[in-house]
What we know:
Elements: H1 4-21, H2 28-42, H3 46-62, E1 88-104, E2 108-127, E3 132-149, E4 154-171, E5 173-180, E6 183-209, E7 212-233, E8 239-257, E9 268-271, E10 275-285, E11 289-300, E12 305-306, E13 309-310, E14 313-326
Helix pairs in contact: 1-2, 2-3
Amino acid sequence: MIDHRVWVGALLGCLAELAVAAETPAPVASRTQLQQALTALNAGQVEAAKSILRNLVAADEAAPVKAAVAPVAAPAPAQKSVVATETGFDAGFQVSGYRYQEHVPGRGDFMHLSGPKFGITAKGTMAFRDGLWMAGDFRFAYGFNEYRNYVKQTKSGIPDYLWDVRVLGGKDFIFENVSLAGRSFDLSVSPFTGFGYRNLLNDARGSYGNNTFGYFRDSEYFYVPVGFTSRLGLGSQSRVSATFEYDYLAFGRQISYLSDVGPRFPDLANDQNSGYGLRGSVFYEQPNWSIGPYFIYWDIDRSDFSARAYEPHNQTVEYGAEGRYRF
């Protein structure tokens, strides 16, 4: 028969070695109990030594186990692409050349207005998930024009005031590491559509000589813009953006205040429901500013008749430069 003291001693020896080899030293209470068990065993008190060992094992099983868990760093937020539409507010200033002309069959260039324009712009953009975005932009422009008609009557210093308000929505499609001219660039294409309202007030009142007088004109366009913006990343912060847009004229109205000429002339309101516009721009952009050229073109067909009068087929061309600051 195996002596109990032999196997208990061997067991205590193993426990002691495990306690020494463990990375975390055994608790003081456990070491004390082991010493007590060894003392009891040497004194021939085998049952007492076994009882101490049972209590030690029971206490160890009841103790909570604390696992060493390495701290996990929160994942860094994904960096947004330099060619993506960004949330922000932009304010800008424009300088442009402007020309409006009317065409009447048999008289060619019936009349035209031309001159410089100075404008301010504001645009607020909100970017959402999955590349979706919405924007609202506003433009006001002011200028002085020179009038000239087909019989070469002229008048200078004719003021006009232009408002253009738009609400747009679109989506970014981003292509990374596109190879162009042996280099890799990030590229995006962002189609959009929305609704726009343009209002032009032209104060042409006054005498033009030869018993000819001008009058106040109020022009309104309600239109649907459809277009796209493409951006090419030039680095971690700079990019070039190009925008092209087609504007479908949904409804137009031209009000001519002929009563400014004399009380015997009625004011006219002519609807213009056929026409279109084009506009485009190219901007070099940094995080807080951008600059570039732009153009705006309108081609509006002849209006309906009102009091046996109509608004002729007309075209508007504007080209200039704009600088913007982003807040």
